[in-house]
Each structure stands twice: as C-alpha cells, then as structure tokens.
Amino acid sequence: MSNTMEKLFNLPDLGEGLTESEILSWHVAEGDTVALNQVIAEVETAKAVVELPSPFSGVVKKLYEPVGAVVNVGSPLISFDVPDHSGATAGDPKEPAGGAAREPSGGAAQRQPTLVGYGAAAEPGGRPARRARVGATAPVAPAPVAAAAPDPVPAGRDSQAGAPVSADSGPGLRLVEPHDPASQGIGYLRATPPVRKLARDHNIDLRSLRGTGTNGLITRQDVVQALEATALTEALPQGPVPPAAAAGETRTPIRGVRKATAAAMVASAFTAPHVTEFLSVDVTETMALLERLRASRRFADVKITVTTLVAKVVTLALAKHRMLNSHWDEEHGEIVEFGHVNLGIAAATGRGLMVPVIHNAQDLDLAQLAAASGELTRAAREGTITPAQLGGGTFTISNVGVFGIDGGTPILSPGQAGILAVGQVRKMPWEHLDEIALRQVMVLSLSFDHRLVDGEQGARFLSEVGAILEDPALVMGLI
Asked: Is 450 a catalytic residue?
C-alpha cells in the first residue's frame, strides 16, 4: 500500500493589497479526487469573484472553512492527501504514524505555482494571525513541560503548520477544530448561497442568528423568522430598542467593493494633495467625427463612444506630458515616470465603483481601444472581472456625463498622478467664427497630484486634450 502525504493549501494572495476573501461556493467535498488545476472553490474578494484552481492532484482530506466564511490571506483553506514519492516508509521516525505527513503551505514556494501566490507562509509556532470570531471558544493552552522533555508532534500534523491537533495530545488538552460547532457561536457564517442572498436582500446579518439546521446551519426559516422579528445587523448597538423615529432606517454592513473603494478614496484624498482644473470645450467637430466613425464598416463590430475618443486623445497626450503618467514612490523617495499607459476606465456596477484597466493602451488603435473598453466594462458589471484586470493603472478616465453631469472634482486612484472626468455634451450658445452659434460643449475636469504635477503642467495637458477634441485634425501633431 502506497504512502500518502497531506498537503495544506492556504488562501493565496489574489490581488494588490487584498487581505481576505469570502467563500462563495465549494466545487469539491471531502473525499473527492481532484486533478491539478481543477477548480475547487469560488471566492469573492473586494474586487472580483475568483475561481481557485487546485495546486495538487490527490484526494480532498479536509475543508477548513464553510461557504460564507470570510478567510484571511495565508489562513488554511483545504488539505489534500497526495502520493508520497519520497520513498519514506511508515516506520520512518521522521513521519507521523499512519503514513501521512503534513507539509506546511510554505512548501508550495518550492514548486511551480498555478495561482498568484500560495499565501503567506505559516509563522513559526502557529497559524497566521486571524480575525477573532464572535462567540468562538479560545483554545486551551497546554501546561508547561520540563525543558528536557520535548513537545510531541501530534499525529497527522506538521509542527509548523499550526493547525488543530488531536484531542488526546496531552492530559486535559482540547484544541478546538475550525468546524467544531461548539466554537462557532453566532459569529460564524454557515448558510447556503440562497439563504445568504435572502439575508443580504433584507439586510439581515447572519452573524446575529443561531442556525437550527444540521451542525448549526442557518436555514431559510431562520432568516424568515428574523425578518418577522425585525432584522438585526452587526452595526446596531447593544441595549435598548431604538426609538420609533428610527424604525424606518436601514443599516448595511460595510464590506466587499464598497469597503475597498472607501478605503482607497480616503487613502488617496488624505495622502495626495489634489488640485482640479476645469476646461469647457466646443466638441462639435468631435461629435461629427464620432457619427462618421460609427457609420464606417471598419467600426461595425465595436461600439465607439465619446469615452473611446477621449481615451485615445489622452493616451497620445500622456506621451508628451509624462508627469501626468507618473507615480510618487514614498518608500524609495523616487518619482516614477511610466513608459506605458495603463488606462483605467471608471465603471458604475451593481457591486459599486470599479476601475477596469486597459493595459498598454498606447499600443492600441481606436477600434482595439473600443473593444477592450467594452469587454472590461461588461466583465465588471457582470462580476466576472479578475483582479489582474483591475490593477496596475497609471491614469484614469471617468465619464460622469452619462449621468447628466457637467463636471466635478474626481478623486485620484491611489498611486496615480491624474484622473480626467468627462462631462455631458450639451448644446449651448457659443462664440464661433466671431458669431454666437449653438454648439455642442463639454466640460473636462482634471484632478492631479500636486506633488508630481505643477499647475502649469496640468493646464498644458488639459489644454492640449481640449484642443484636439475641439479640432480632431490636430491629433496629427501627436502621431
């Protein structure tokens, strides 16, 4: 009978600065045989829904977290029994009894990864620090032992992995397993996706409920009863019932995209000194060009919009005004001027504001730019966009005109030097050829990081973009 080795897989780092993910669904169960790169779970980060591929071929031994749990990066997620080809035998004193050995997640760094990172390596002597769960039972610390007597390594667990051990590891010692119902309390989310959706739709905080289903599972009836008894949320204070005047208010937990966006905006607003400049532009000629392009067979398969034309002009202008396409590197005390344009296009979605990024936009022609923008925006709104498609931006465009807005003071995306807000196109009386005429006018609002960009530099960039939109033929001077 061949030996097996237990491999532990921690939640990997799924994007830039993401620290946790919520498990939306498991595609495997304990005891299932899986192949390398087979999708094992679907998780939701603050930016996107991501499918996790299996880093091993073998048999699923244990799922450490249920659907609905929020897991920190570097925390145990799943373990596998895989064939042990090391040649060790069950009698090898270096292996635990039973022929199974646990390899900590840090061992994954020694193989070719199939995903972005395998998570933080386990810290010596324990699991990575995790957020405390409400009502969780704290593990009982083992009694001190004499220095001459080494601590035994529990069966089935590497001493560095830091996960639960068997209950008989020592006299009176009981370490709580992650799925032990006694440790879950009201703070541990155990519910099927339909039940979780029902709770979200009615602002019910699942952490306030005690499940009546098997092993503490929160059922649909539990949520219905909570609705009938008045919804509770984690933000509500403990104590007396609020006065009747507050009965109509609702409270929604701050999480996911909204939480990440808020943190990013606060960090940007209070780190980079913002300056905003405005320019009203006669875009009558650009709008006429837009209609001709839409009628052209060359663009029959793509959707050309005002944003597409502005994006093309911006990529050309940034090659000349490089400080608007730069980054303030505080850690290294350097200003980084990028040689490429990774253009972010702000998009309003059902999950909140997202900024898909068109990488190397300077290399794309108008049709390619339109296709890339359309695909990324659609993916963002459908919830299928990946973290890689949301990261690495160097400049951002936000079309507020689609909401009937003329202009505003856009906040920079963290780490970027500039963002351009595009207002609505309106017919207005305008001076044209020394006469007053009804023209199509747009307001451009440019915010920039004053540490990187002087007022003159910002003004020159904005003026050049505006001049080209007023007379598209001027683009020939930038090609």
From this structure: yes
